[in-house]
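Hi R.,

As promised on Friday, here is the backbone we talked about, encoded as structure tokens. Could you run it through your design pipeline when you get a chance and send me back a sequence?
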């Protein structure tokens, strides 16, 4: 479902209601994002500025052994009733994880604490109501729209058969999503940022653990399922429902990288830049006994890699060097090149997988210029994947590509950089030998989505 969210301080309530926050739309979006709401037939029945009313029906899915509402589901309803009342105050701002949106134009809301008092058994359809005091509502709006984090305590009341059955005190945080991402000025990382980082890595690991029906895709990671864990498996399955093309895109790039590593003569070093939960270093360690693997990522991901690799039968820790770096801030040529075990003069492969599209062009230029300083040997190369410009701008008439972009937006994974000519882009940074192939060409498939995604191998 495509919704055009107007971004304007002059937006009227009627405009916001129509495009972002009306009951039918929010019921649909919340049920899609939180399946238990769908299973319980929970719905939003009314929203106004600072007000939300919901209904939790009395049915088989929502009742306990006494035929009354399960207490936990009343608490669940309280969470989304209060949260939606808070969201009505953020006029024109889409909600991360709910609306199709980008980090720079969305709000992140999360529950910080709750206290529910159950007055009496609920024996009828349960109406939840959250009404925010106008004075408190004005303060919330002022804080959010001047860029401050909001901490709001809201009251939610529940009625069944005309009687008050429960009261809940709910504490929420609300903040522009972009503020959760570390910057040079504010390098500290929030718990939500770390969670999202790990969730994304587990999701990709979950996709790597799956098999493709395509006859050319035979590469498989035997460790991916373990490192993804139940969280990664769940996210990967959910992702596959939204974006069925993405599994083959991930498996295709993974196989293309494997082929490159096996083709480089006398290979001595492999750098996994933005390693995530890619277990390629452990998969190839036995077959490439002379290769040292440098695994580079944010500190949170390095810690997660250390945790999950301890679950594997072999860690090959003597062959692996783990390096923490913030690609937006640090000079990777220094972080990697100054390590005593790294030698820029020997054959090296640098892998920058699934990353370029999430950095700005200026940031990408800085990163790839750093890589260039690390590949002095004529056999050394950099591998990277790119999306076309149309995937970033959304300027396409192809319905399949539009559907793919909408799916990415709904996941909060919008791309910010793409290039229609990766070879020329590499050459503009000082690389001399570049080979580029689209995922569609690699698979011998004339697929609109696959043709917007390409892999490049670049040398000095």
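Update: got your reply. Pasting your designed sequence below so it's all in one thread:
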């Amino acid at each position: 479902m495509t919704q055009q969210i107007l971004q304007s301080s002059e937006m009227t309530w009627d405009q916001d209601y129509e495009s972002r926050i009306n009951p039918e739309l929010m019921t649909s979006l919340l049920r899609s994002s939180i399946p238990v709401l769908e299973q319980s037939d929970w719905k939003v029945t009314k929203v106004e500025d600072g007000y939300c009313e919901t209904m939790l029906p009395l049915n088989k899915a929502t009742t306990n052994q006494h035929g009354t509402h399960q207490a936990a589901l009343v608490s669940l309803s309280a969470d989304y009733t209060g949260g939606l009342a808070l969201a009505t105050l953020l006029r024109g701002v889409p909600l991360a994880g709910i609306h199709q949106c980008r980090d720079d134009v969305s709000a992140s809301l999360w529950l910080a604490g709750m206290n529910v008092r159950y007055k009496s058994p609920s024996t009828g359809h349960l109406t939840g109501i959250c009404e925010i005091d106008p004075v408190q509502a004005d303060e919330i709006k002022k804080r959010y729209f001047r860029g401050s984090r909001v901490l709001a305590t809201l009251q939610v009341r529940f009625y069944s058969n005309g009687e008050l059955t429960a009261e809940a005190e709910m504490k929420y945080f609300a903040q522009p999503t972009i503020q959760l991402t570390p910057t040079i000025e504010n390098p500290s990382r929030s718990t939500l940022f770390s969670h999202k980082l790990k969730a994304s890595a587990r999701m990709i690991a979950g996709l790597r653990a799956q098999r493709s029906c395509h006859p050319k895709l035979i590469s498989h990671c035997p460790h991916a399922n373990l490192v993804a864990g139940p969280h990664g498996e769940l996210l990967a399955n959910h992702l596959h429902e939204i974006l069925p093309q993405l599994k083959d895109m991930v498996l295709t790039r993974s196989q293309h990288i494997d082929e490159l590593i096996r083709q480089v003569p006398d290979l001595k070093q492999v750098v996994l830049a933005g390693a995530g939960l890619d277990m390629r270093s452990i998969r190839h360690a036995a077959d490439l006994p002379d290769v040292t693997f440098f695994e580079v990522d944010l500190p949170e991901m390095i810690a997660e890699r250390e945790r999950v690799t301890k679950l594997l039968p072999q860690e090959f820790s003597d062959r692996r060097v783990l390096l923490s770096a913030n690609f937006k801030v640090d000079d990777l040529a220094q972080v990697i090149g100054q390590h005593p075990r790294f030698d820029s003069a020997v054959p090296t492969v640098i892998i920058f997988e699934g990353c370029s599209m999430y950095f700005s062009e200026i940031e990408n230029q800085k990163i790839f210029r750093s890589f260039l300083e690390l590949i002095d040997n004529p056999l050394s190369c950099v591998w990277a994947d790119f999306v076309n410009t149309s995937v970033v701008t959304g300027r396409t008439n192809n319905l399949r590509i539009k559907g793919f972009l909408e799916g990415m937006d709904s996941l909060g994974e919008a791309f910010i950089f793409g290039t229609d000519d990766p070879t020329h882009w590499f050459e503009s940074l000082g690389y001399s030998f570049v080979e580029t192939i689209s995922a569609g060409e690699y698979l011998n498939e004339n697929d609109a989505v696959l043709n917007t995604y390409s892999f490049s191998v670049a040398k000095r």
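One thing I noticed while checking it: Confidence is low (pLDDT under 50) at residues 1-8.

Thanks again,
M.
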